[in-house]
Amino acid sequence: MSARKIKTQTLFYVVLALLIIVGVASAIIFKTTTTLKVNLYQQRSADAYQLAKAGVERAKVELANDWDNWTMDINGDNINHRGELGLDETEDLGEGQYWVGVQDTNPAVLDKLLIVSHGWVGDTHKRISAILVNSGLPTVSEEAWVAEFEGDRVSKLKADGTIEWTNTGFNEPYSVSVNPDTNECWVTEDSEGRVSKLRDNGTIEWTVAGFTRPQSVSVNPNTNECWVAEYTGNRVSKLKADGTIEWTQTGFNLAASVSVNPNTNECWVADYNGNRVSKLKADGTIEWTKTGFSRPVSVSTHPNTNECWVAEYLGGRVRKLRANGTIEWTRSGFTRPASVSVNPNTNECWVAEYSGNRVRKLRANGTIEWTCTGLSGPTSVSVNPDTDECWVAEYTGNRVSKLSADGTIEWTKTGFSRPRSVVVFPATIITGDAVVVEPGSWREE
After folding, report:
1. Long-range contacts of 360-365 (CB under 8 A, 24+ apart)
2. Could you write out the DSSP letters of every residue in 227-268?
3. Could you tell me if 389 and 350 are in contact, meaning their C-beta atoms sit under 8 angstroms apart?
4. Counting beta carbons within 10 angstroms of the beta carbon of residue 203, is it exposed (0 to 12), middle (13 to 18) or buried (19 or more)?
5. Which end of the chain has less neighbouring CB within 10 Å, N or C?
6. Residue 54 and residue 398: Cα distance in Å, rounded?
């Protein structure tokens, strides 16, 4: 064999050996990195648990399930989903995100310690606020806030419809919007021209006056800011968490409804007498305005797609608008549709027909899935995105009803006085013994 061939062969084996070494080293590094991530997950979960025991109100959490570890892959598909570790949803949860893993649904790991909170699970926006330490049977807690227009009060209802507490002293409360992160509720008073913020226990944190018939309110849970539509004031204002007015946008003609997208902090506005729908940017400037509606009275935005559902009160129609304002479809045949509520998990929409005395559920393409009759003047609907159940305020019936996902009435509670608005507080799902984290915020130092 020539010296040249020997040299070539030797070089070949050297390169092969180097490739093997690099491969083994890469595998070791990968395994070590994964182990470190797992350890970090376990340590910070334990830290969060100790913080809760020490009385910390709540740890802000970024959900993460894309680590290369089967106990952290909630869907079991090893595919990145919106909001997982390393993607772009970190800022959406505000200050002090707490990086932890998401427990797998496999029963073998139900005893893993973890903490989860408001954020994204897979592609679905959910809220879970408990620290799980042991496995057990599922427990669901659900609440709803109801504004009684003639009763001059706001009540908080439990999942079965029993009243937890009632706050009197309001004057024609018209609209309510709850922050699922803090369990605080924003309330508008139509005739008094006020907006109030209520704590979880129903006490008033603050009240801001000077509005003109504020009839709609929508809170952004990520910022705890609130958008307010003034019906005869013909303007929309954005309030900070402490109630100070950040800015006011004028030029509307009976602003009837607002719906904020928590992911973009943009807001959709139903301009009732102007027969138009506008989309406002976070700073209040008008991004665009679409005309051709017939008394739009209610808007509900989809946080993931930034699409919006619009109820036209006199037009008897429901329309679905894309993010740029173009109309995707129109569904007619309603009788005074007064309220719409979209489920972001299913992209279906619940519609309350005031004069039709019914509630309908529309699929994503606008076809009617079912109709629930026997209601009395429903003016407000609010869907629970986790259970797909819907709460209904029956204005003329003086009652509140809860509908199952298939439209059957689960129960009806009477004794209300013109309930004008209802908003559901998403369920807290506890799969084991838990230390429940009370509403509030915590910033990692």
Report:
1. 360/334, 361/390, 361/407, 362/318, 362/331, 365/329
2. EEEETTTTEEEEE-TTS-EEEEEE--SSEEEEEEETTTTEEE
3. no
4. exposed
5. C
6. 44
Write down the H helix ranges in 322-371: none
| Every domain range in the chain assigned CATH 2.130.10.10 | 139-426
CA–CA distance, 372 with 367 (Å, rounded to integer) = 15
Segment 389-402, tens digit of pLDDT: 999 999 999 999 99
Beta strands in 322-442 (DSSP E): 327-331, 337-343, 348-353, 358-362, 368-372, 378-383, 390-394, 399-403, 409-414, 419-430, 434-436
Sheet holding 358-362, edge to edge: 337-343, 348-353, 358-362, 368-372
What residue type is assigned to position 406 of the chain? D
Residues in the chain predicted with pLDDT less than 70, given as ranges, are 1-9, 12-13, 29-141, 427-445
Contact 380, 420 (CB under 8 A): yes
> In whole angstroms, how far apart are CA 313 and each of 66, 89, 213, 267, 347?
45, 36, 19, 20, 22
CATH of region 139-426: 2.130.10.10
Q: Tell me how far apart the alpha carbons of residues 84 and 124 are, in angstroms, rounded to a whole number.
A: 11
Tokens coding 424: 């559901």
- Contact of 51 with 442, CB cutoff 8 Å: yes
Can you tell me the distance from the alpha carbon of 254 to that of 353, in angstroms, rounded to the nearest whole number? 21
